[in-house]
Amino acid sequence: MTQSVPGPTAAAFFDLDNTMIRGTSLIQLGKGLYARKYFKLGIILRALWLEAVFRATGAEHDGHIVEARETVLSVIRGRSVAELAHDAEQVFHESIAERIWPQAQALAANHLEAGRPVWLVTAAPMEIAAVAAKHLGMSGAIGTRAEAVDGVYTGRLQGPLMHGPAKADALRTLVSEHGYELDRCAAYSDSFNDLPMLTLVGDPHVVNPDPDLLRHARAVGWPVHDFRTPGRRRTIVGAAVGGAIVGGLAVDLVRRVGS
Questions:
Q1: Residue 216 sits in which domain range?
Q2: I need a labelling partner for 116 at 20 to 30 A (CA). Which of 66, 95, 154, 171 fits?
Q3: With pLDDT > 70 as the criterion, what percentage of the chain qualifies?
Q4: pTM of the predicted structure, to 2 decimals
Q5: In this model, does residue 235 exceed pLDDT 50?
Q6: Rounded CA separation 255/115 (Å)
Q7: pLDDT exceeds 60 at position 3
Q8: 15 is catalytic
Q9: Catalytic one among 17, 87, 190, 210?
Q10: CATH number at residue 168
Q11: Does residue 145 belong to any structural domain of this protein?
Q12: Angstrom distance (rounded) from CA 232 to CA 210
């Protein structure tokens, strides 16, 4: 009688935005969809402002996350799943792949080379998460899912936004399904909002951390990986600087769309 070989019991879980990539994937997706005439200029300008706040303050804001989610859902309502999957993959290769931190990719590769499954666990849309995981050679991805009926998006979520406690709950389910042991697993994130996920595992790491997560990591002795150069590390700045960032992003967007 042949006995089945047990699978690995240790795995690694990586956040996407500002952990595996520089900046926010949802904003890049928004720029790409705007270039493809999914929505009007006012929406993308608001998205650029949210990105400026994210860059300037070094922290995610729950209200902004909810706003971004509702905006994306309204934009894709009535679109086909196949169309968005195609466009999201194009956008990833156009503007997100180049934002991957080589050092973060090396961390993931080290786990893979050691025989440990590596998963992307992110609040980003599943359409982007799946492409990113495939590009990075990962085992799979957990992302926020938009509801679709008969291959067309309804404008509602399928399940929760993969953020905060919901991300930790999804990770517990994944671990249970695959037989991983949490105390042998590692997790990587930049955001204090991911504390529920980080505290689940035996080997938590913080990457390009926001101020709150950095303070916590130092207090409890977690490893800190900061790939940002001193001049590019996030600091709290005034709204005028945020406005300047928006202006620069807007000019860049117009240039890209017009080219």
A1: 10-23+98-223
A2: 95
A3: 74
A4: 0.81
A5: no
A6: 44
A7: no
A8: yes
A9: 17
A10: 3.40.50.1000
A11: yes
A12: 13
